[in-house]
Specification:
This protein has about 240 residues and is an alpha+beta fold. A hairpin with a 2-residue loop joins strand 5 and strand 6. About 35% of the residues lie in helices and about 30% in strands.
Length: about 240
């Protein structure tokens, strides 16, 4: 994987409404991740930071594998669960990540998510959402009951059904070959609740580099309302 050249950047912002930032980001090969903490001031901050602290241990492995990531995710869950038990209102965090691994002697993205933080990818067919939200809204969308979807959008659209630190913390996982020209966006819902997929794609494709894209995405979400913390990691594959 030494031949892979990446352009990457991260940006996190408190937004215009919240008093503190409960999001955390990590962007250091081979791992890119975003976590959105829950549990109120300090508890959410610590939960997201601790989850990424544990996961960042991947950088110590010369050739990380899917099993490496599974083990680290288990440790992150146990760490946040212990933290939650010590907090009056509990604590937890969403988590989305992409790690570079070798599979059959080829580089792959090992993508995982728990909760409603998302990973998007731009490849030959344009922008697509790779991850699937673990949320009440997504479950209702999958059910096809439009009346319930309309109600949830107004009342419970931010209710998540999985979180790191909770019993139902098993991640969904995808493995996608690394290809030149790919663009990955990892983000908290503070971005996707403010910007449409079309707006996100427009900014990603028109930005000069990953740093420019990350800054512009956060700025656009703030301009659209900034009602939550906003965190993004942008990764561009320059050469494989």
């Amino acid at each position: 994987m030494n031949t892979i050249q990446l352009d990457f950047a991260s940006c996190t912002d408190v937004g215009k409404v919240r008093a503190g930032n409960e999001d955390s980001v990590f962007a250091e090969p081979p791992l890119f991740a975003v976590a959105d903490g829950m549990g109120g001031h300090q508890a959410g901050d610590i939960a997201s930071a601790e989850a990424l602290r544990v996961l960042s241990g991947i950088v110590e492995f010369k050739e990380p594998t899917a099993d490496t990531i599974t083990s680290l995710l288990r440790s992150a869950h146990e760490t946040v669960a212990r933290l939650s038990s010590e907090m009056p209102m509990g604590a937890g965090t969403t988590l989305v990540g992409a790690a570079l691994i070798q599979k059959d002697d080829l580089p792959y993205w090992h993508i995982f998510n728990i909760g409603d933080s998302r990973l998007y990818m731009i490849a030959n067919s344009g922008l697509r959402q790779v991850t699937v939200d673990h949320s009440l809204m997504q479950e209702l969308l999958d059910s096809g009951n439009q009346n319930l979807v309309d109600i949830a959008y107004m009342v419970d659209r931010n209710v998540i059904t999985k979180a790191v630190g909770a019993d139902n913390s098993a991640p969904d996982v995808w493995e996608i070959p690394v290809a030149e020209g790919q663009v990955l966006l990892l983000c908290s819902d503070g971005l996707t609740n403010e910007l449409s997929d079309q707006e996100i794609e427009r900014i990603l494709v028109s930005s000069v580099d990953a740093k420019d894209a990350a800054k512009r995405l956060v700025a656009a979400a703030n301009e659209a309302g900034g009602r939550d913390n906003i965190s993004v990691v942008v990764v561009r594959v320059k050469k494989v």
